[in-house]
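Morning run. Coffee first, then this:
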Amino acid sequence: MHLYQGSTQQFIADATQARLANQLSDRFFDEFRYRPAPSEVTSWRNSLGAMASVLQLADLTDQGILVELKLPLSSKRLDVLITGSNPTTGDSAVIVELKQWTEVGRSNITDCVTVDFGGRQRDHLHPSRQVAQYQRYLIDTHPAFSDGAIDLAACAWLHNAQHDPKSPLYHADFATLLATNPSFAGDQRHAFATFLENRVVGPDDGSILDRVASTAFKPHKRLLDHVARVIRNEPAFVLLDEQLVAYNAILDEVRGAGQNKQQVVFVIEGGPGTGKSVIALNLVAELAERGLSTLHLTGSKAFTENLRKIVGGRAGALFKYFRDTATVTEPLDVAILDEAHRIRTISTSRFTPAKARTGKAQIDDILDASRVSVFFIDDLQVVRPGEVGSTALIRESAAKRGLEVRDFKLEAQFRANGSDSFIQWVDNTLELARTPQVLWSMDDEFDFRIVGNVRELERMIRAKAGEGATARLVAGFCWPWSDPDAAGQLEPDVRVGDWSMPWNARDGVGRLGPGIPKSDFWASDKQGIDQVGCVYTAQGFEFDYVGVIFGPDLVYRPMDGGWVGQRDQSHDRVVRRGVTEAEFTRYVKSTYRVLLTRGLRGCFVYFMDAPTRDFFVTRTERLDPAPLARAAELEARYEP
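And here it is:
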């Protein structure tokens, strides 16, 4: 998808005669069925007018041009792509990232600068890094570039800025990057024009432009090989025991499905810590190595961004979101759906073109997008409305299509110190599932402790981190969540008495102070220990030790039938609105299940509500004379 396609001569005419911004606005409405913001229209008018002046200066009037070109399987759009040719490389293209910035500041984040937006400093990717990533993405996923037929270059132009060698934009840290993907200032128009001339001076009769505009997403073999190699060399992704059994079984079935060209659905069930994600990543590696068109898909931004960080930015093209299946035009060989319990009702967002807004369910988009679909799922991890993923939904949707569903269940526990009994005890205690584990033995190797003071909870978690373990504090969503202040410091929103600590940074906020990780990387950055995580940043991750602040949004009241969700104690607007009391209670119970089961070696809990704490204590096997009698009494609560 793109908003403008034509010759550079026509582009210059449309820009100089003030037609272009309106054309883009109309095209935007045709695609998305709502009008772009006035600020975006103004940006087009200013930036594209400046771009037209450089094309005139360089006398590039016989080339092709695309404006607002959507990257394959992404909501990101390139500002400008120019096609042409030159005597050295033949068919060629240049990506241009346009910025209206006048100046930038230093950032505490790698590859970033700070920019003033409405009086607030925000961290922003350096324009050269931004456009370099676009260039790599197209080379890895767009056949017009990945097969080498069209040479691709990329640069940025800050047309309102003045060149200043002392600017953070040109700091020595960016020297290598600037050498390959330069960022030109407004007073460097001639240098920018020369850069374009050297790459696309020859004409394009439209054929090069058409190849770029019409080709669909297809990961290149070099990218597939790269992903396979990185995952193979990552020790954390080694398969053990039942994980390897399930992995081999799936591969055997995928191989058979490929030979028979049949559409197949796999459902891989497993609770927290059974290795679903490890198997999923190993499948990505193996299938990529075989050259199959494969995507790893999730519904979690933090989880996906951390996977991209692990395998490297280049491999990010294979790690997408469930919603991206709505724009797949050629079916994939295999779609690997990790954390499939986070499947939404529909894939539509504000970035979805009108023609793609079919009203289809997201599960149908997924099944349409691939020949083989592999769902890794835990039915008890649905924590908010709109997340409808379940084994029942997958089976029902497959049955409507007459597809065979092949089931695997993971039992081996690789979290909670290998203690599946802890997971079962949590499920039983929260009354999410009836399990044999009614009482928790406090002498188990998994270190579970109920802590009487929140300061002590923090001290214990920091002590474990000081010993070299990974450790985090998490909490129920029982406090407001503020944006950082003007200096990028986080507000201490999570308050218990006179103790306080900030939440992790909100997603998409502006500038962050030194040492504060972005929301996506709270779980993996060591500095994340200085903030409290919520279910949305913790789900999908694991730590050696987790400290849980069990808030008043879920309390135990035997006189009211047991677990009671207290909607007025929740600050999660998504969960507390538009659901029944029973639904709210179920979501909050699942939230605490997720938080309590993040630990590999231990879980420490502070309960803000004393009766709830006391109930948990009764579910632990202490040195009293009749633990079996108490177990029988508790178990009787489940008798019909």
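The chain has three domains: 4-214, 221-409, 416-638. Good start to the day.
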